[in-house]
Structure formats: C-alpha cells, structure tokens
C-alpha cells in the first residue's frame, strides 16, 4: 500500500531527471566541436610510406656537355688520301663520264696538297661486280692508287671511273642496291690489308660519292647510317681529319628528281656530308666542272682547319690562340675553318658546348 501511495512522487522525480538529461544533451549539441592539432614533433602511430626517389630528389635536366680541346698548328704540306665511291649501276654511265672528264677541275683547286686517289664502287654485293670496298686497278697501270706523279693521270682516272659493266650490261649486271656508305666502311676496314697503299699514316681522309640514289636506294632501316661511318673512321683511322663530299641527287631538288626519272634523294649521303663539314653538288648538272671545282676548294681548306671531337652548338665557341693573334673562321659541321692559316707553331685552345 505504501508503494502505491508513493508512485506519484516517484514519477515526478523521474520526470525531473529526464528533463535535466535532455537539457544537458541539447546544450552540448549546440557547442562547437574542436580538434586538437598534432605537433610536428609528436610521433604518429602510422605505417611507414615509401616515397619514390624521383620525388625526394627530382631528376635534373642534363645540360649540354662542355668540352675543351687544344691543337698545335704547324705550317706544312698537307697530305690527303681521297676515296671516290662511284655508282656503277646500269643507269650511271653518263654520270661516270662527266665525273671522269672533269677531274682537272677538282685537282686544280688542291694547290700544294699532296694527294692520292683510290676508286671503289657502290656495289658491295656477292655478285660478279661486288667490290665490297676493294680499290679498282688503275687503267693502264700496275697500281690501285693514282697520284699526280702518274703520267696522264686525268686520262687514267677517266678510263678507270667509267665502267664497262655499267655501259654494256644486259644480264648479270652490277647491283642496283647502291651502298656508298657501306662501301666506305668496307674500304676503311681494309686499310691495313688490300687497301694499304691508299691510307697513309700522316694523311687526312676524304671520301667523294657519285650516285643518283640514297643508301640502299631509299635509306631503309637496314642501311648503313652516317654515324656508323664516322664511328668507323674514329676507330680504325684515329687522328685523321675526315670529310665526305657528294655529287648526288640533293634533297629537295625536285627538278633533278624528275629529270633522273628513277633516282632517289641522297638523304643519308647528304647527312654524312653535313656532319663531316663537306659539300655537295648536283648529279644532274650538265657539266660537273664547277661543282668539282667547289668541292676541290673546300678540300683545300683542310690545311687551314681543325676538327673537333663533337659538333658544337652555334655561338658557344670560345677560341684562344697562343701567342695571341686574331683569326677569322667559320664553323662547318665539327670543323673550324680559318680564313687564313694560323701562325706556324701556334697553339689553339677551343672551348664549346656539344650540340
């Protein structure tokens, strides 16, 4: 009976407790929640995360290489060994004849240079006429190297460079897969054997290509690249200044391309010429005299040139001459060609950025 009589008081007590509890909850819900910041010195209990090296130390963009080379210049008679690489495919007899008749235009520009000439062909096949870099026997001679000491050297050059297999081919012809760059490499590889007489230890080396097509006609991936020739020369003929020239179907000469009919632009040959500081002339010229004269004049500048190990960035060259003298020069490929010869005995220091 006492429990029943106290029930209203008990209910009132619980009502007050409920109201107080709700009020407390509502008050706390209206308060802003704050987060305590974690100090950087405090250690977090989290797993280690590996950061890639290229994010910790970002890669640095490489700068062009700087090179310094020193040359000693001595006034003496220059010696040049010249390799003519002649396209002997069936369509080239007229071009061979024009080249042969104008040797004097080329030789006349060499002035006091001690020169000698060897001749090979673009045929490096396994066929009957595949020379693979071997030198041709000079006409009416017991040698495979032509010099100005030979009587009637111009006539002998003409008779050697005009090929019977080109003129009168009907079957079993020379290869039409012209490979002048590979022929140069093969000739160099025989510098100490079959082609020994052409390559003198104290002479620079010049290659002159006559062709109306590119390496392997169109320069496919299987063709010998200009860089391979330059590398071969540096490996097997160290210390020699090397330059290539070309009487070719020059890239972009659309008229010559149309006139030749079945010719191809000589892109690979042209690239090798430019990389070695040489010069080209057109295979379509009616007379090769002027073109060969200009090539000869460029060859003659070897006496006033130095060859850098790398092709420089234009404008990056710093040149010091000891004893001091002002020199005018031009840059062609990796060569510095002086307008006039530096004084004999002078030292030339060249600093440049590699291209």
Verbal overview:
By secondary structure, the chain is of the alpha/beta class. The chain has 2 domains: 66-70 and 310-335 and 337-353, no CATH class; 77-304, Rossmann fold, CATH 3.40.50. Helix content is 30%, strand content 19%. It is built from 12 helices and 12 strands. The chain has helices spanning 2-5, 7-29, 53-56, 93-101, 103-107, 153-161, 164-167, 180-189, 226-236, 254-260, 267-275, 289-300; strands at 66-73, 79-86, 114-121, 146-147, 204-210, 242-248, 280-282, 305-307, 318-322, 329-332, 335-338, 346-353. The strands form 3 sheets. The protein has a 6-stranded mixed sheet, sandwiched between helices. Helix 4 packs antiparallel against helix 6 (153-161) and helix 8 (180-189) runs parallel beside helix 9. The chain is globular, with a radius of gyration of 39 Å. 34% of the residues are buried. Mean pLDDT is 85; it is low at 1-10 and 17-44.
């Amino acid at each position: 009976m006492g429990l029943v009589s106290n029930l209203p008081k008990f209910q009132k007590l619980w009502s007050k407790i409920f109201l107080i509890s709700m009020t407390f909850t509502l008050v706390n819900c209206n308060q802003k929640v704050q987060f305590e910041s974690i100090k950087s010195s405090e250690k977090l209990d989290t797993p280690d995360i590996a950061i890639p090296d290229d994010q910790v130390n970002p890669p640095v963009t490489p700068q062009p290489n700087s090179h310094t080379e020193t040359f000693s210049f001595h006034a003496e008679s220059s010696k040049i060994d010249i390799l003519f690489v002649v396209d002997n495919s069936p369509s080239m007899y007229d071009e061979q004849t024009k080249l042969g008749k104008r040797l004097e235009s080329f030789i006349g520009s060499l002035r006091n240079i001690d020169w000698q000439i060897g001749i090979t062909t673009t045929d490096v096949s396994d066929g009957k006429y595949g020379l693979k870099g071997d030198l041709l026997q000079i006409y009416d001679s017991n040698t495979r190297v032509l010099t100005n000491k030979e009587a009637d050297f111009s006539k002998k050059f003409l008779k050697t460079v005009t090929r019977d297999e080109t003129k009168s081919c009907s079957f079993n012809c020379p290869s039409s897969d012209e490979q002048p760059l590979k022929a140069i490499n093969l000739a160099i590889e025989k510098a100490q054997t079959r082609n020994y007489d052409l390559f003198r230890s104290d002479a620079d080396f010049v290659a002159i290509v006559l062709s109306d097509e590119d390496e392997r006609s169109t320069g496919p991936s299987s063709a010998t690249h200009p860089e391979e020739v330059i590398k071969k020369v540096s490996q097997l003929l160290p210390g020699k200044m090397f330059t290539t020239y070309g009487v070719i179907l020059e890239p972009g000469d659309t008229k010559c391309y149309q006139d030749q009919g079945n010719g191809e632009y000589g892109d690979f040959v042209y690239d090798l010429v430019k990389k070695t500081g040489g010069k080209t002339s057109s295979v379509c010229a009616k007379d090769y005299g002027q073109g060969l004269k200009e090539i000869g004049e460029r060859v003659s500048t070897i006496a006033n040139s130095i060859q850098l190990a790398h092709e420089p960035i234009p404008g990056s060259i710093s040149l010091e001459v000891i004893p001091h003298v002002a020199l005018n020069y031009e840059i062609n490929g990796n060569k510095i060609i002086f307008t006039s010869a530096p004084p004999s005995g002078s030292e030339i220091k060249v600093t440049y950025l590699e291209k």
